[in-house]
Write a structure and sequence with these properties.
The protein has 69 residues and is mainly alpha-helical. It has 3 helices and no strands. Helices cover 77% and strands 0% of the residues.
């Protein structure tokens, strides 16, 4: 069975979502601003997929990061 590129992208983003929300693990070179930018892009992705619960969790992470600035 051939894996479509779109499906692979979806699986990869879901995996990154799990790592960020459950483990809170980030690459060492990600400062606060880079994390916020990345999370906002993920939120836009999940809005397009209509996965609003994931958007809410990611927005909570953004809010936490912004409050630490």
């Amino acid at each position: 069975m051939e894996l479509k590129v779109d499906n692979y992208l979806d699986l990869t983003i879901d995996e990154v979502y799990d790592v960020i929300t459950n483990v809170n693990l980030w690459p060492g070179n990600f400062d606060t601003n880079k994390k916020i930018t990345f999370l906002n892009k993920m939120i836009q992705y999940f809005i397009e997929k209509e996965e609003y619960e994931k958007c809410a969790k990611l927005q909570h992470k953004v809010d936490e990061l912004e409050n630490r600035k």
